[in-house]
Every structure is written in C-alpha cells, then in structure tokens.
Amino acid sequence: MSVIAVLGAGKIGEALLSGLLHGGRKPGDLLFTERHPERAAELTARYGVAGVDVPDAARRADVLVVAVKPQDIDPVLAELAPLLRPETLVVSLCAGLPTSLYERKLPEGTPVVRVMPNTPMVVGEAMSAISPGRHATGEHLAVVEELLSCVGAVVRVPEAQQDAVTALSGSGPAYFFFLVEAMIDAGILLGLPRNVSEQLIIQSAKGAAKMLAETGEHPVTLREAVTSPAGTTINAIRELEKHGVRAALLAAIEAARDRSVELGKG
After folding, report:
1. For 152-199, how does the pLDDT look when each residue is reduced to its tens digit (9 = 90+)?
2. 68 is annotated as contributing to ligand binding
3. Is 76 a member of any domain?
C-alpha cells in the first residue's frame, strides 16, 4: 500500500488524515509534518500517525499532499527538491498555486495534481476540484480521487478553471454562513429567541441542500414550489431582487475569482 504524507497538519491536513483513516488506511501507511511539537504530539496521540520532518516525508512517501499555507510553499519545495523520488506524486491543496510552480522547483517529470478543497472536509463533506499538471496521468488523477473521496465529493476540471472553482466552492461555505447569519439575525428581529432562530434556519438549510442533491430538480423549480401567488415568499423574493442580492452575489464571486488570479500570479 502506498505511503501518504500530509505536509502541514492544520485543519484541512488533519481532516484529510482523519478521513483516510476512516476510509480504511492504516496509521502505519500515513505520515504528517507539523512545525509545532505540541501539535504533532497531539495528532500522533489522537490518530496513531507518525509526525516526521519534510526530508523524511520526501524519502518515505509515495504520495505527498502539500497542505501548507501558500506563503510557506517556497521553503517546503526547497527542502523537497533534492530528495524527491521521480515517481512520487505531489498533490497540492494550496489555494491559488499553479502546478507550474511545483514543476519549476521540483525535479523534471514530477507528477503534480492541483486540488481546490473546501472547509466542509472537516465533517467529511468537502467539494474538491482536481486538475492535472503536465506530467500527471489519468492514473494519478484516479489515485487523488480515491484519496479525496474519503472526505467528500470530487470533480475533475481543467486547471484554467481553478480560479473560478476557488471563488465558487472554495469560498462558497463562507457565503452560506454569511446568509445563515443574516437569516438568524432576522429571526431575532422578528422576536424569536436566538436558539430557536438558529434551529429553524440550520435545519432549513440542511433540508434545502438535501432536496437539491436528491431530487434532481432545478433550483428555480424548487423555489417556485415554495412561492405561492400573493403569498409571503414572493414578497420576500421581491425585496431580495429590489436590493440586488442576486447581482451582489455575482459580483462577489467574480471578485473572489479575480483575487485568486492575483494570488496565483504572486
């Protein structure tokens, strides 16, 4: 069985480790790196997975999952480059970093797969989009799909679409949290206790997401089913349109895409 090393054991890195273990991987087939000794000891105690340094991970792993912050990538790649074996698959979970960056700094021919996950990975419900670099094959993509399926859904996209993915699903949970926060506040404004307002909105969000996922109906169809003539919902929709909520979302996601492009260039 392949040895998988997760470089950077923050929230996403830990979520992936946990998902791989729940998916049937043995602790002995996994490694992780973590700069803070206390955090490393905590993770080893929790999961039984060994914490190592970057050079050791490079020497031992068949798959290296890079989950460090984008601003920390240069020293990590500098450590990896002289030790990386030619057949090692590098999987990047770093937002905004193109596969060409890894290909320039790592040995010639290194297969690289770029991934844009999102934070629901911590509850096993991530949406991850994957793209191959110049040297990554369909077999490499299949390996990455298998790994990430332990923590959610996976879709393949051309790398040119990764900035759009970052804006839409990478940042997407924040948009939903923002809307839920506003709706809970609206419930409080209307006189409901906070705990009741939270329960009403969170369960409504779960139910609506399940309907979208399981019915196969278009969102417009599902919305129209709730929107009776001259009823409460159509009055609310009118106010949302009057205040430009749809246009604001389009502009917000476009702005996130533009920022992702800027970060990639940097």
Report:
1. 999 999 999 999 999 999 999 999 999 999 999 999 999 999 999 999
2. yes
3. yes
Alpha helices (H) along 48-168: 54-60, 73-80, 99-105, 138-148, 162-165
**Domain range for residue 71?**
4-162
Q: Which two tokens stand for residue 110?
A: 């290194």
CATH of the domain at 211: 1.10.3730.10
pLDDT at 251 over 90: yes
Determine whether the annotation assigns residue 154 to a binding site.
no
Is 237 among the domain residues?
yes
Is 206 annotated in a binding site? The answer is no
Residues 102 and 180 in one domain: no
Q: What are the structure tokens assigned to 218, written together?
A: 């278009």
Number of domains observed in the structure of the chain: 2
Pick from 162, 181, 196: which residue ends a domain? 162
Give the closest residue to 126 by CA, choosing from 72, 74, 67, 39.
67
Q: The pTM is what?
A: 0.91
The two tokens of residue 117 are 């996950």
* 70 annotated ligand binder: yes
